[in-house]
Every structure is written in structure tokens, then in C-alpha cells.
Write a structure and sequence with these properties.
The structure is a homodimer of 277-residue chains. With 277 residues, chain A is α/β, with parallel strands linked by helices. Chain A has helices spanning 59-64, 68-74, 119-134, 149-160, 181-190, 203-208, 227-231, 233-242, 259-276, and strands at 4-11, 14-22, 29-36, 45-51, 77-81, 137-146, 165-171, 217-221, 248-252. Chain A has 9 helices and 9 strands.
Amino acid sequence: MSIETVSKNKSFGGVQGVYKHRSSATGTDMTFAVYVPEHAPGAKLPVLWYLSGLTCTHANVMEKGEYRRACAERGVIFVAPDTSPRGDDVPDDEGYDFGKGAGFYVDATQEPWAKHFRMRSYIEQELPELIAAQFPADMARQGITGHSMGGHGALTIALRNPGRFKSTSAFAPIVSPLNCPWGEKALGGYIGADRSAWREYDACALIEDGAHLPDLLVDQGTADNFLDEQLKTHLLDEACRQADMPATIRMQEGYDHSYFFISTFMAEHIAWHAERL
Amino acid sequence: MSIETVSKNKSFGGVQGVYKHRSSATGTDMTFAVYVPEHAPGAKLPVLWYLSGLTCTHANVMEKGEYRRACAERGVIFVAPDTSPRGDDVPDDEGYDFGKGAGFYVDATQEPWAKHFRMRSYIEQELPELIAAQFPADMARQGITGHSMGGHGALTIALRNPGRFKSTSAFAPIVSPLNCPWGEKALGGYIGADRSAWREYDACALIEDGAHLPDLLVDQGTADNFLDEQLKTHLLDEACRQADMPATIRMQEGYDHSYFFISTFMAEHIAWHAERL
């Protein structure tokens, strides 16, 4: 389990690195970013996972997310994976919302996607082992967050792995792929026509089916162009109320879907995670 | 003097805008970014100018600079212009360090550059008038900073316009175009072979020739690949000492030339400016 260092830059006293490795889950090279704050020799730091949205790589949040100051202050490692397998032999779709850059954090079962599009296994199993082995990470203290498709990833991975994450949050998440066009296209393509198989990739369905988190923080902008058709934050709110699951879902007046929104609330999310880690 | 709004995004309570206008100085369309914090109706806010480095547009610092939190907290407008004229009829050079993206904040006198490469007039005269007219800006309270070529721009513009800026700082500035390859190429090309004419575009020469600032903050990374050949921070230190000009020049251990460095110290620079504005 070796990794190649693509770049390292000192920032806010710590090191922002970009790394590449051969993934057995996806059968491709995978790139990811890790920020490690300055720390005492031998110290192990808690880990916050950040899953990115459609069209993104590891780089978007690394460049625009403004997480390093808060992570340095709180002593939190920040891990930002890619959103899909990449490479010339990886199948793709013409749309921005399916194929490369749009892995939806699922293990695909349908051809031609099943071979490489195994982002669930990659994020749930392979990459955590690699982070534990290669970085000063205390894997008993993990939190997870993400944006849009990555918010969907954060919610569903946390819900399916009870106890693994001490904290879960999301920025403008897709809360129910069963109930939006992005989800219809992606899960129909990756998982197939049997919609019952989609439920483990649907945060609202997982909660309905009994999965539970101790608490949850969600920020959603009211000026987000995708709110009404794709994100439907109210469905998560309803699912949490029905299941009596604590959730802090904040509608943020005038904010859109961009990193101008994410960066505004990033430090609050990191503080919220750090208090629980 | 009209401007076109390219985009507006709410961020940290204020508005990050991108605007376009027809510039009489450069004879081209010019794009710039302005962040206006939330403020009371009718209030006028101080202005911090940020001049960018080689290859950059208005967008680099807007995306990677991490200035909005500090500007929102301190109530400071942040203006980020482009680094050169743009357009199909604007001459260019094959190098990244001359022509488009490399205006060096000079008014060119040599052909074919003299017609459009008038970034000195644009930054010193035209854009301030436009900012004063179109934004809630208190032009009696201006500060200026910049990175690399933009640090050179900030220093030379402040030195040539005594009293206009209440505060001046720079990140990894080019301190003496007379004494580095970037300067030789750019000033030789834009201004011509008479090196005495370069002195008004050289911070160290301006200080030697009697220009003076009440104080100055400079951060420079020790791991900056351009330090020894291009930036030569020690020349500025020596010029300030010779002229008995107060200057806080901080060599930051292990930091490079990137926005990972700039963003680390951005909030300190904004605080430093805000205290003087």
C-alpha cells in the first residue's frame, strides 16, 4: 500500500499534500488531498473526511474550501478524495452528472460501470486503511462531511456505518437520490432499474429503514439553484422528524451552491466536528 | 463609466462580485473582482487593493486568497484587478512572464505594447475612479497589497503616490526589476533600453531616490523557488535601512510562492491594514 507524493505545500503551519496511489477498489490510479496540521511528534490527530460534489476532483475544496485555518487551530486532519475513477480506459458519459466526476459514492453493479465505479468500497474501505497507514491519523476519531453529491456520500456512508464517525455534517446535500433527477440518472445507471436496491444509497430511505445518527449538521443556501429540483432539503428534515433523529438543518438566507457558500460555513462545520472528535 | 456585473455570490455575509467594463486606459474590456462586506445602508468602507502576480487574473486571489472572512470581520472592501489587458487584438509573448497576464503595472512606451499595456494608468487612475463611483468605498481610506509582480505593483504605486494609501504590504514581492530576469525582460520590453526610465517602476530605486512610506509589511517564504533569482527580498531590506524607512520584513520559514502561503498570512495583512485604515 504505497503512495506517491504529487505535491506538498506548507500552509497555516501544516502541510497540504496531494497524493496518488493505485487503487484495488477502482482498478485505477486515484488522487487525493490531505492536510495535516502541525503537531507534536508521535501525536495522532482526528480525521475529517470531505466528499466533493459533481464535476469536482480533490482540488476544488483544497483550493476554495478555506478549511486549513480551522483545521490547524483545532488539530484536525482533512482528507479530500476524488469523486470518481479517472483514466482513458474508464467509461464516461456526456453529462456532467454521470460517469467521471460523478461516482455518487456507490459500488456500481451495471455494465460498463461495475468494473471501475466502486467509490463506496474505495471511500469506506480502501482509502481509510491507507490514511491510517500513511498519516498520523487517529481512526477512532473520524468525522465526515461533504457537498452536494458529496453531502449525499457523507450522509449515506455515516448512516450505513454506525459508530464509525463521531460526527456527520453536510453542505447542500442531495438527500434523496430516489426523488431527484440526478439520483434517477446516476443510480439507474450504476445500480439498475430495481429501485429497492437504491435505498442503501439514499439518506432519507436509510433513515426510514432504521439507520440512525446521534446528530447531524446541515447547511443549505436558500438561493441554491438546485434546491427545489435536486436537493429537496425538506425531505431530510421530514425523515429525521419521523425517525426522531436529532438534526440541525439550517437554511442560510441568500447563499447559493458554490464554494463562496461552503467556505463561509466551513469553519463552523470544522468546529462542530472538532467538538465531537 | 458603466460596469457590467459578471457574477455575484453571497459569501461571509457580504457580496463577492465580478465586474467588467470598457477601459479607456487599456482600450480593452477589463474584468475585476470586488468583495463588499455586509454594512449599514449608506456606510462607506475602507478599500484594500490586491494586485496579483504573473499569469493571474482577478480570479486567483478570489478563489484561493481566503480574504473574505477577515474583510467581513473588519469591514474592508477588497478589490482585485486583472494583471494585464486581454483580447484577441492585444499583443502577447510566448513566455508567461511578459505580455498577457504580465502587465507589471507599467505604462508601456515601446511598440507593440504602448497602445494597450497601460496598467499603471488603469490601476492608479481609471479603476479608483470607477470604484469610488460604483461601490460604497471611502477613498480617503485606502490600503494596497499584492503578490510577486503584484507586490512590486503595490510597492511602486504606493511609493509614487505619497499619502494616497494609509497602509502598504506585500506577499513575496519583486522588489527590484532592475536586478532580476523578470524585470529585465518586462521593463526592457515595455519601457525600453534606457534603464534610468525603469527607476520609477523599481521599489528599491524609488526608495533610493527619496520616496518614502510611513511603514510597510512584507511576508516572504524561505522555500520560495523565486527568492534567490527574482525576488531578492534583501535588496528591499537594505534600501529601507539605508533610507531609514520603517519596514517589517518577515521571512516565513518553509513557505513557498503559492496561495497556500498567501492565504496563511492574508488575515494578518488585512488586520494590519484595517488598523491603519
